[in-house]
Amino acid sequence: MDRYQRLRRYGLFTAGVAVSAGGIAFITRAALGTSPLSSLPFVLSLITPPSVGVYTFAFNLLFLAAEAVLRRTFTRMQALQIPFTLLFSVSIDLFMWLIPTQLHGPYPMKVLYLLIGCGLLGLGVTLEVLGDVIMLPGEALVRAISQKSHIPFHRVKVLFDSTLTLMAAVAALLAFGRLNGVKEGTLVAALAVGPLVNVYTRLLGPSLRRRLDAPAV
User: Fold this and answer.
1) Which of 42, 49, 84, 202 is the least crowded, having the fewest Cβ atoms under 10 Å away?
2) Are the beta carbons of 118 and 32 closer than 8 angstroms?
């Protein structure tokens, strides 16, 4: 892979990170819950002053540390996860600030926000995967656990997301007595994003891969 191909791949990955952050913000602003991976940071942001982006960054650093412990190494590629995690976290807060909440809005508008968010999150994840350079710490930790335990990636991913969602639900119940931040939108996001990634990959994968692998002119 030459320098220009690498730059294109990192550019695509960066775009995917930003689009994913926008998708998470739309899902969250729908006021029907948030994505499973963001559920615990979001609930904690409702309980305490730090924003969801700050908590996202903190949790991703914990995931990165856990990945390093599992692999017993900390490589340059793993270190690259830190600036991209910062971009991801700052982008979430930026989009949360830009997108108006539908907390007291009509239910159809909440659903529209949720659908837009799922579509954007699925597209963002697709771009990250097609970039094929690094992963954000959450997915990287899931991959490390999968490789260490010899359990398929998708099964570890379901367990990982379910654990975070359960922790978020417990925190919400303890703090508010109800499931603030963990609602039907969380379930929809969990079920919809994976199939959307498959659809986007089939539609966009061939042309994007050709462009990524094209020699510099």
Assistant:
1) 49
2) no
